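explain this:

___
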Amino acid sequence: VYVYSDASQLKLVATDSFRLVEKVLLDVNDESGIFQNGLILPKDALDELNRIIHPQSQMVKITVEDNQVFF
């Protein structure tokens, strides 16, 4: 999944070789600017994050190092 930020929006783009999907999340605070250049995250990692966070969670902190992403 390709993830990038544009102003106060976070955009996630994915494909299955046939369909192309874009999800836009509004009011995202990308203080560190880690998504301005874009990142490619494995679908499995995002599925796991979606599974463990509570639906009412208001903030998820994301840290990026050389070749790892921490949620």
Notes: The mean pLDDT is 84.
